[in-house]
Amino acid sequence: MATKRTLIAAIGDDDTITGLLLAGIGNVDEGSEKKQSNFYVHEQHAQLSVLEDHFRQFTQEREDIAILLINQHIAELIRPLVEKYTQPFPALLEIPSKEHPYDPEKDTILKRVQKLVGD
């Protein structure tokens, strides 16, 4: 199962996704009818349902993604979905953005780890 998972996916703001694409994580699957990319730029005015659909696509439908990076301030918009997500693959990591610093108190995954370790 893990051998198929070779991509890092990202959901974030424009600056974060641009930086990650410049670092080389971008991939567009041209083999399918509908071109699928491994990144999504969430605009402030975009509907939440589009964000939710991309999160579900990256975490449930795609079998080629090993890690999903998501800006923490965007994860806050879909926090119930993020909290429900418990699968080991793709691993979900909340990251800071240029405008929004990382807050460990909001990170669902970090809270789970601290609970398991007993902190």
From TrEMBL:
<comment type="subunit">
    <text>V-ATPase is a heteromultimeric enzyme composed of a peripheral catalytic V1 complex (components A to H) attached to an integral membrane V0 proton pore complex (components: a, c, c', c'', d, e, f and VOA1).</text>
</comment>
<dbReference type="GO" id="GO:0000329">
    <property type="term" value="C:fungal-type vacuole membrane"/>
</dbReference>
<comment type="similarity">
    <text>Belongs to the V-ATPase F subunit family.</text>
</comment>
<keyword id="KW-0813">Transport</keyword>
<comment type="function">
    <text>Subunit of the V1 complex of vacuolar(H+)-ATPase (V-ATPase), a multisubunit enzyme composed of a peripheral complex (V1) that hydrolyzes ATP and a membrane integral complex (V0) that translocates protons. V-ATPase is responsible for acidifying and maintaining the pH of intracellular compartments.</text>
</comment>
<dbReference type="GO" id="GO:0046961">
    <property type="term" value="F:proton-transporting ATPase activity, rotational mechanism"/>
</dbReference>
<keyword id="KW-0472">Membrane</keyword>
<comment type="subunit">
    <text>V-ATPase is a heteromultimeric enzyme made up of two complexes: the ATP-hydrolytic V1 complex and the proton translocation V0 complex.</text>
</comment>
<dbReference type="InterPro" id="IPR008218">
    <property type="entry name" value="ATPase_V1-cplx_f_g_su"/>
</dbReference>
<dbReference type="InterPro" id="IPR036906">
    <property type="entry name" value="ATPase_V1_fsu_sf"/>
</dbReference>
<keyword id="KW-0406">Ion transport</keyword>
<dbReference type="Pfam" id="PF01990">
    <property type="entry name" value="ATP-synt_F"/>
</dbReference>
<keyword id="KW-0926">Vacuole</keyword>
<dbReference type="InterPro" id="IPR005772">
    <property type="entry name" value="ATPase_V1-cplx_fsu_euk"/>
</dbReference>
<dbReference type="GO" id="GO:0033180">
    <property type="term" value="C:proton-transporting V-type ATPase, V1 domain"/>
</dbReference>
<keyword id="KW-0375">Hydrogen ion transport</keyword>
<protein>
    <recommendedName>
        <fullName>V-type proton ATPase subunit F</fullName>
    </recommendedName>
</protein>
